[in-house]
Amino acid sequence: VIGEGGAVLAHEEHDPILVPAGCYELRRQREYAPAMPRLVLD
Amino acid sequence: MRRCRLSDEELARIPEFIDKWTAIGLSTTPVDQQRAEPALRHLYASAGLLEPKIIWVPCPMTAILSAILYATIRASGHPSRAHDDRKLAEIAERVMQRPLTMTAAPSAYRPMHLAVERAVSVALGHTSRIWSGFDVALAINQTRRATFDRVLNRAVDDTVRQRLHTRLVTPIRAGLGILTGLLQPALNLVGYGVARIRIRHAGLAYSGAPLWAPDAARIDYAQRVLGIPFERGFLEAVESCGLYWMLDGICFAAERPTHINRDVAGRLHCEVGPGVAYPSGWSWWHWHGMRVPQNVIEELETITVETIKHVRSAALRRVIIERYRHGEATHGVAAYLRDAGGVRLDHDAAFGTLWRLAVAGEPTLMVEVVNHSPEPDGACRHFFLQIHPELRPILKDGNYGMPQPPTARNAVASTFGLSGAEYRPGVET
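The joint structure predicted for all components is written out below.
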């Protein structure tokens, strides 16, 4: 949950993103692997 | 009276100290042993300790392993048994095998192993006193810190100390991060991996550049700019040495790196060899800041379509594909897609390109996506992500959703556990 005024999402390799107030679901990107899916590591 | 602020003139001199101590921390000039040895002896003398035998080793990893091996043999109570070369080699093998495997490339094992055996053999030959396990590093560091803190606290207040930390210490730490970020985890892994506490103390008994350069800069600035009188022995040791391990009667001193190679953006990078290398062969390989295995830089013939398929990290896979068939007319992504029998199934400017590859006769679906944030050179990174053969969304619990038609949108959506219809990104970076 992000409150009034939003929040800045910072990452060393990307421009900062202003995330507006609201409810969010955080999803991790995954890729297919025959044995078991794995998280995408960037 | 304690100072509570720094003048504009004093603040203006901070960059000079940042430059000086960052350069010392990242120096690749071989240590001048004639200058360094008196500085190390002085550290022992300042804590009231007997002069040590100084033994030079070709990198910090051989120094920490020498310290651990030496302490292991001395603590056993039978150091004379290890004078036999074969016995020493056996103990060395037992102590070093795991740390070397975890922290060094195979090409460096033998030279590092020999360097440690040589250093410990010399140290044991010099041993005359009974081993007490006395923590020399703690004694030296506490003496220095107690003196420094007492004098500094009398001279300046918390505001000034905080300001020095923010404006001087923090930028130097950041500047040295490219080297300390490699050294510290490797040394901690080995040092804290030792179960016996007295042996562990020996492994962690280090000081010097680059890890202590920010502390040295603060003392240097306080003395030269603020006129606070400090004894300069520690500064001389950090300035003239690399890292050194302070044990009772013995000091294992490590050489500085021979190379620290960077790209124009300042990231560790070298196309033909290690980004950071020590004289022992202890090295790390980097591609535009990303740490990669040695073969990705130096053994390009080992990069094949098949090996690329088994790389687990998407970021590393991106670099490896970039290096694929390097030096040939067709190389990188184009060569990879050609050799993997790539067939373009769909392209969507908003989502990427969906490819079907035939790796080792096995059909594989990959979606090629592009980073929206450009690199310092203006290029945008391309990543290949493997997706389910039927584009089923990959759910959080490891299960898969329903099959989808082969489009780039559906493919990207599936990596987030969604169908193409559900996937509506608001912002992309």
